[in-house]
Structures are given as C-alpha cells and as structure tokens.
C-alpha cells in the first residue's frame, strides 16, 4: 500500500447533523463515492429521525459510523467531540463538512491532496475561483464582511475565515489547545484557523463553490453572527 493510499484509508469526514434527514441519505453515498475515506455522522438527537436514518446507513456500510449525542449542543461542541474520537481512533486526516450539500463532495480529493503538503486546508469561497451559488445579496455581504472583519482584527491573510469545509492533519488538532475552545458557529471556525496560524501550521485555501442548501432549514442565525463579532477581539489574546 502506498503512503497516499494509507492516508486515504485513515481519513474521516465528520458530518454533524440536526434535522438533516432530507439530505443525509444522499450526501453520505456521495462522500463515499468521492474518496476512499470514512464518514462519522454526529447527530444531536434530531427530532426528524435523522439519527435513525444515520443508523441505517451505518448498517449498510462499514465505512459509516454514528455518534449519537443527547441534545443539540452547537456545531462547535459536535466537532470537538468528533475530533477527540477521531484522534483516539488514529485517523491521520480529519475533515469538517456540512451535511446539506453546500460543501460539495467533489472537492474532497483535491483537499486531501493539498493536505499532503499543508497542515490545514480550507475550502474557500473568497479566493480566485471560489464563490457561492443561489445566495441572496445580503447573505454574501454578511459572509464576506464577516471574514473581512475577522481578518482585519486578527491580522491574518486568510480570505475565508468563517468557512466550515476543512481538512486537518492530526498534528494540527493535537497541537491546538482544543479544551480552551469555547466558540460555536462562525466564531468556532474563525478560532480554529486562527489558533492553527498562531501555532505556525501551514494553512492553505483552495477555491470551492458553496451551494445554498436545497432541503431543510439553514442553521445560520443572528445570534451566531453576533457571537462571532463579539468573540473575534477576544481571539487576539491567544498566543502561540
């Protein structure tokens, strides 16, 4: 087995879900078809039956596992739980990915390839070649403005700090003080990338087209946006 094949077989996509039953049955097969990696569904006790649908997918394919959490505790808590379990299981590459097809599985191979020479790969909407599809103007303004606000405050060059499509080498997650991370939502994504930059890890952005979800309700809210704005100045106090 080549080193690339070994890494691919030790790669997992963390897929947090809450009321994603419409999308889950389609996104998991699409991920598995895109690259030889595993999928861990992290369900926060979705009332729409997403957890049961996830169990069906796991029974049908050994590359799929399900983590059932007792209640909705936020995206950040779901990822931190998944990170800890994935590291304990020995995974070399760990993806963050949305379950609603806004993050397209076709980008997984190129992100995995970039993770051979970089420590953290960001799927970016705001670099050349990236963008959004079916987004209203206000949503684009909020997203681009949020990244510009965070980039300016933190003094970093990353264009898409609020994006949630990422591939980490295990060394990054082991090197960060994940127990100190308190943010959720947009702020969680900003904080992880900033912490990685502060530690000197090699971070690269690769263009993606972010597609607005077709099924289910968006999790983005005014509270998440406000939290991100309030938390960014606090992050400047994080040292290397």
Could you characterize the architecture of this molecule?
This protein is an alpha/beta fold and 240 residues long. It has one domain (3-235): Spore Coat Polysaccharide Biosynthesis Protein SpsA, Chain A (Alpha-Beta Complex), CATH 3.90.550. Helices cover 44% and strands 18% of the residues. It has a seven-stranded mixed beta sheet with strand order 3-2-1-4-7-5-8, with helices on both faces. Helix 2 packs parallel to helix 3 and helix 8 runs parallel beside helix 9 (222-235). It starts with a helix and ends in a 5-residue tail after the last helix.
In short:
The chain is of the alpha/beta class and 240 residues long. It is 44% helix and 18% strand. The chain has a single domain, classed as Spore Coat Polysaccharide Biosynthesis Protein SpsA, Chain A (Alpha-Beta Complex).
Features:
240 residues, alpha/beta, Spore Coat Polysaccharide Biosynthesis Protein SpsA, Chain A, seven-stranded mixed sheet, two-stranded parallel sheet, 9 helices, 9 strands
């Amino acid at each position: 087995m080549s080193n690339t094949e070994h890494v691919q077989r030790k790669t997992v996509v963390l897929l947090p879900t809450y009321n994603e039953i419409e999308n889950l049955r389609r996104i998991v097969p699409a991920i598995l078809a895109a690259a030889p990696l595993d999928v861990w569904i992290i369900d926060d006790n979705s009332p729409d039956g997403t957890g049961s649908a996830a169990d069906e997918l796991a029974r049908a394919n050994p590359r799929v596992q399900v983590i059932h959490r007792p209640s909705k505790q936020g995206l950040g808590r779901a990822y931190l739980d998944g990170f800890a379990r994935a590291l304990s299981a020995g995974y070399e590459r760990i993806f963050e990915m949305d379950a609603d097809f806004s993050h397209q599985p076709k980008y997984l191979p190129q992100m995995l390839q970039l993770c051979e020479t970089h420590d953290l790969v960001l799927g970016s909407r705001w670099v050349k070649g990236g963008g959004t599809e079916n987004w209203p103007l206000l949503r684009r303004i909020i997203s681009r403005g949020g990244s510009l606000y965070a980039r300016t405050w933190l003094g970093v060059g990353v264009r898409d700090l609020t994006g949630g499509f990422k591939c980490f080498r295990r060394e990054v997650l082991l090197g960060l003080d994940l127990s100190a991370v308190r943010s959720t939502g947009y702020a969680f994504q900003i904080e992880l990338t900033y912490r990685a930059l502060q530690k000197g890890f090699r971070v690269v952005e690769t263009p993606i087209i972010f597609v607005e979800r077709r099924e289910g309700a968006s999790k983005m809210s005014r509270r998440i946006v406000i939290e991100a704005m309030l938390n960014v100045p606090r992050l400047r106090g994080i040292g290397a």
